[in-house]
Amino acid sequence: MDPEELASILDTDRVWSAYAMADLDPPYAAHAEWLAQPGAVVLCYRGFAPPVLFAHGEPGAVGDLVSAVQPGRYQYALLGVHRALLGERLRSDVEARMWRMALPQGGFVRTSAGDAARLSAADLPAVRDLFSGEATPPDAFQPSQLEQGCFYGVWEGTSLIAVAGTHVVSARRGVAAVGNVITRKDRRGRGLAKRTTSAVVAELLERGLSTIVLNVAMDNEPALRAYRALGFMPFCGYYEGVGQLLPGPALTEGNEDVRSV
Q1: Nearest to 178, CA basis, from 170, 169, 188
Q2: 3-state secondary structure of 106
């Protein structure tokens, strides 16, 4: 399948497939490996170590596709029905229940960005300093995101005390994923995450992006409150984790239309 055929499958659920839709195009496409059948795709995104495993589509077709995924260590983002297909084949080291949240059309509740400032690649050292001081820094941050995406931060002197940004942005597909949101521990409870995230979302909407999503742990009540206050709503629950994918059964007869893209 060519990228537009893959896009037509992913577009049947733009919110769940937002990251994968962005991965169809540069600069992300260089790291994306696809398995596809009519109505289903499995993506192995190798821009991270370990690579990220994602699935979308009818469970029977996804089951055929995941049986062709090479064993190894993966990060994964999987709906419950697709996580169940892997069963004992996926041995998780860590796994969390997550919400994929989305901003409904016209649902943005803008809050004052206050002193949130647009960040650029030149601010990478300060961003790294903030992230490195956290016990659980953002696990999907890459320096290239500062230049390719949209980031805002709050400064205190020469130090960043809060940042919000994006994981992926694709003007061609009309999608963006908000992420890399963090406030320094001793400055939390002041609404800084809400202000920086609001600034990011406002710019994404000004760019005309129609699908804006984010991920949050189901038990992260402060983050859920902040995102809801901006207009985001839970769209679906899913499993996010890291684990070892063991060898699977060979493709059965009749699955010859599984194609690597």
Answers
A1: 169
A2: coil
Task: Kindly compute the dihedral angle of the four CA atoms of residues 244, 30, 139, 128, in this order, to the nearest 10 degrees.
Answer: 150
Instruction: Please give the Cα distance from 236 to 201 (Å, whole number).
Output: 20
Check residue 205 and give its pLDDT: 98
Q: How far apart are CA 100 and CA 113, in angstroms?
A: 24
Nearest to 55 by CA among 25, 73, 81: 81
Residue that the structure tokens 């953002």 belong to: 138
Contact 38, 61 (CB under 8 A): yes
Q: What is the pLDDT of residue 260?
A: 52
Give the model confidence (pLDDT) of 93-139 as tens digits: 999 999 999 999 999 999 887 899 999 999 999 999 999 988 788 88
Pairwise CA distance, residues 26 & 144, whole Å? 12
The candidate with the shortest Cα–Cα distance to 244, out of 93, 98, 48, 95, is 93
Are 184 and 163 a contacting pair, CB within 8 Å? no
pLDDT at 252: 40
